[in-house]
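Give me structure tokens for this 344-residue protein.
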Amino acid sequence: MLSLLMKTEILLPTRENIKRAAKLIRAGELVAFPTETVYGLGADGLNSTACKKIFTAKGRPSDNPLILHFANLAQVERAAKILPAAEKLFAAFCPGPLTIILPKTKFVPDAVTGGLATVGVRFPDNDVARALIKAADCPIAAPSANLSGRPSPTTPQAVYNDLRGKIEIILNGGNCQFGVESTIVDVTSPVAEILRPGAVTKEMLEEILGEIKVAPSNAAKPRAPGMKYTHYAPKVPLTLIETSTPDELEKIFRREIKNLRAENKSVGVMASHELINNLDAEKIFPVPYGRRGDLKSIAANLYESLRTFDDLPAQIILAEGVDDNGLGVAIMNRLRKAATLIKA
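Here you go.
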């Protein structure tokens, strides 16, 4: 029962509250904090017992690796071997929404890496996150601060809704800037490989490193978060509709809404303002995620839009896909993982 669990507070990131959160981290407890991508659920990244608490709180499979968040390169050198390609990426994109896979040292527990010989390293571009890491004086292991499989949280309230009673403190940094998790790139092979797309795109990485491979997202043994398990799913089934033209898209949505309503299904629509404006709003539960083609806005709103349906009586969600290039690659990666069905 909730009354038997701890009290969870959403606190402004004052100096005193950050000190209090850092003290909890050092004591082996969990704290939720903002980054520029999504909110993270943090623990001392070199404390195996503390990191295991992350998996328990989230209901996360133990072979799904965690990412270590750092404040400076000196911290990284204790946890990972810094390769030449990583030095180039650090200089170009860090701090920022990029995670780099490197060989780990003996100081990083298997609870962080899922038993792998590598570890994900990241420098968050968020003042609250950096202040917390510095105050804790340790790398902070942090996946998204949500229940495993659910849409990642981009607001403190979303964290509270999922983890109330399981953690003591949520540092309130407002809405996250990017809204999708960091790009993950593995530089331990001669040709670097994207394991998870994000705001740092393939094209941006190629400008620094040259040729870049893209790993399949359904690996049997995940080398990074987001590679194996169901992610980002709302509480009701989601059908993702992918097509090339706005006219064709509108035809498909009208057909699907008509068919679902004939089955007495209440229909939610997560789509661009342009598409929703052309549909009959009286027959759907509309949740616009941004203007068509404004990928930054769509990415920033994506998870909160999915979570909006938690409070609507929709029995199925129809979602509009975006162009699968640039930042759209990351958006479509999340939508495809959230989808129960994909239609073209």
